[in-house]
Design a protein that fits this description.
The complex is a heterodimer of chains A (153) and B (140). Chain A has 153 residues and is α+β, with helices and mostly antiparallel strands. Chain A contains 3 helices and 5 strands. Chain A has a single domain, classed as Thiol Ester Dehydrase, Chain A, CATH 3.10.129.10. Chain B has 140 residues and is an alpha+beta fold. In chain B, a hairpin with a 5-residue loop joins strand 4 and strand 5. Classes of the chains: A alpha+beta (153), B alpha+beta (140). Chains A and B meet through helix 1, helix 3 and strand 2 of A and helix 1, helix 3 and strand 2 of B.
Chain lengths: 153, 140
């Protein structure tokens, strides 16, 4: 076990953007825009990069064999607080191969409104093309509550 | 699709809101397959109940995906430059989600004409499920 703290990194990984996955994701999020479906090189939907982390990379929830697996954290019910995606230019397109790396950037504890501590963990991932140019950045914030939100309903 | 797009957009403009749903279990499972997030709390009632929820609940990221689609279908998938979403309430199978947006700023950055949007996603109960800010390039 290692203490949960900023700076812990998962290994770099390669994330091939697959045409079928882009179209599947656009369909699953309710789009029928021709920029996704009438071309073999669609840009990715804004929140698509999450699938790269899930299938090819490492997250706090699904750390595989990375350093994220060894941090001292109960993963049974991490809740999503915030998610941010930035694209310096047009989003990457199907057929591109990206390299990416995730790192824990912030760990904060706050007093929750309904009592109990809230633990916020921010993980940042940079996505680069094969030339090393930054094409996207993701900032994921999860929160761990002592009591799940459903208890109050 | 909105009649007002591209350069004609002005600060304060609100496109026609768009509804998604009712969210079915199939929609949830389809999103889980597409995204690779197979967390059991979103399809396994027993698992969700073990953690104090009345049953399996939908994903914040599905809600976020609908909000992003609402914006990209309007302003173009190639034009998105930033999308940040904050999750405020749990969404459930059967929910009808309504996405609405407002142009809050129009400006020039990185040699592009851009707009900042505020996007909200409400449940049919009127509860605010998620709030997002997004930046898009305006097409000439």
């Amino acid at each position: 076990m290692i203490e949960l703290e900023p700076g812990i990194s998962a290994p770099p990984f390669v994330f091939p953007i697959e045409l079928g996955k882009v179209k599947e994701f656009a369909t699953a999020t309710g789009s029928s825009h021709p920029d996704y479906f009438a071309t073999d090189t669609p840009v990715v939907p804004p929140t698509f990069l999450i699938s790269g982390l899930m299938f090819w990379g490492y997250t706090l929830d699904y750390p595989r064999d990375s350093a994220f697996a060894r941090v001292d954290l109960d993963r049974s019910m991490l809740l999503h607080a915030e998610e941010e995606f930035e694209f310096p230019g047009e989003p990457p397109i199907a057929g591109q191969k990206l390299t990416a790396q995730s790192r824990i950037s912030e760990v904060t504890r706050k007093q929750g409104r309904r009592g109990g501590d809230l633990l916020f963990v921010v993980t940042e991932t940079e996505f680069r093309d094969l030339s090393g140019r930054l094409v996207a950045r993701n900032r994921n914030t999860v929160v761990k509550t002592e009591k799940p939100a459903g208890d109050s309903q | 699709m909105s009649a007002q797009a591209g350069y004609a957009l002005s600060e304060g403009f609100q496109p026609e809101p768009r509804q998604f749903g009712p969210i079915t279990r199939t929609d949830i499972v389809r999103y889980q397959g597409a995204s690779g997030d197979f967390h059991p709390a979103h399809h396994d009632d027993e698992y969700a109940r073990r953690y104090g929820y009345p049953g399996a609940f939908s994903l914040g990221m599905l809600c976020a995906g609908y909000m992003a689609t609402f914006a990209t279908d309007w302003l173009g998938p190639k034009n998105v430059r930033r999308f940040r979403v904050r999750f405020l309430d749990v969404t459930w199978p059967g929910d009808v989600l309504t996405c609405s947006a407002r142009v809050v700023r129009k400006y020039c950055e990185s040699d592009e004409d851009r707009v900042d949007l505020e996007i909200e996603c409400h449940r049919q109960t009127n509860a605010l499920a998620a709030r997002a800010v997004a930046t898009f390039r305006l097409e000439k």
